[in-house]
Fold this protein.
Amino acid sequence: MFLIILLIIAVAALYLSGIKTQPVIHQEVLELCQKAFSHFRNKNYQEAIDLYSSALGKEPDYVPAYVMRGNAFYFLGEVDLALNDFTRAIEIKPDLAEAYNNRGNAYLAKGETDRAIEDLSRAVELDPNLSQAFFNRAGAFSEKGEYQKAMEDYNHSLSLEPRDLESYFERATLLLKWKGFGELALADLNRFIELNPKSFRGYAARAICHVEGGNLIKAIVDLSRAIELKPDYAPLYFRRGVCFFSQGDFTSAIQDFSRLIELDPQFFKAYWKRGLCFLEEGKMEEAIEDFSQVLELNPNFWKAYLAKAFAYRTLGELEKAKKEEEIAREISGIDENAISALTQLSDWEDDPSLDLEFTLPFDQTEPNNEEKKEEYYNPTPVGEGV
């Protein structure tokens, strides 16, 4: 699961916290923070950092400036600097739940899950109504494989914020890990799409539910909608191509695998699946070309040698077929009699590890992680001087 980092700040609470810890906040500091926050909202993080730093030069203990500068550092990928700022905010105001929440997220970004859970637990202890902290702790529990605890936190987050998109999405992700919970996951994704119909992630994830429920037509409809919304996201074409392949619509599958190859020419599985489509359509030369490309990218994928052998036998080129079968036997360790017995496409073409790779959107291969982070950040401008 791709770890979602939410850094939504209760800005008004932070501002009030800052007032309580300093007798007077100079007008110049407030103006600097206002300008900084404007830059932050426009994703000009370095400019925001510079202005918050100027404010802190004049008011060294101004907590909101540390928290917001920490957020800016986080979005620039400077997680250690973000941690420093959140820690300083906690030192000045140790009962500030939002600072623990954000530091917990920074620890999550560094893979320090136990420290993240410790901070996020402190955040919900200080503010039992801070839904973001429950949400983020759920992600941390999920990272550790403690799914029951994660589910409890997602449920709690939604009880506090019934319209929270990401809680519905992540709870559905978790439900899909468990057998027999597909209908509940589908309900969460329906709600996610209802609240955010322009997000491709909802349709792509809902397609997984449909595939697991055996409804490939609905899966194709959802993947097609996802592609409309995110036409350059390569995994969608693979997933839809697999659905078309499973339905026997090899022409449509070839189109999807070809588009995927355009987007990611190093993805050997696209050539493999397209080659199988060509075999099914009787286009042996095209199939051999694709299987050869598979082997250039992944020389140990022995089934591609076997597939080439099948194509060569169909073309009557028996010596070439025997050579490919011999290589397949050497790599796979399967004896000659077993190799010879695999005479039908259905004997060896299916490979669940390749076919149904319906991992959820925004996995580690997502091409635009910066865009994704911004999608999840939605600060609310309230209070002067933040």
Remarks:
- The chain is about 70% helix and 0% strand.
- The chain has a mean pLDDT of 84.
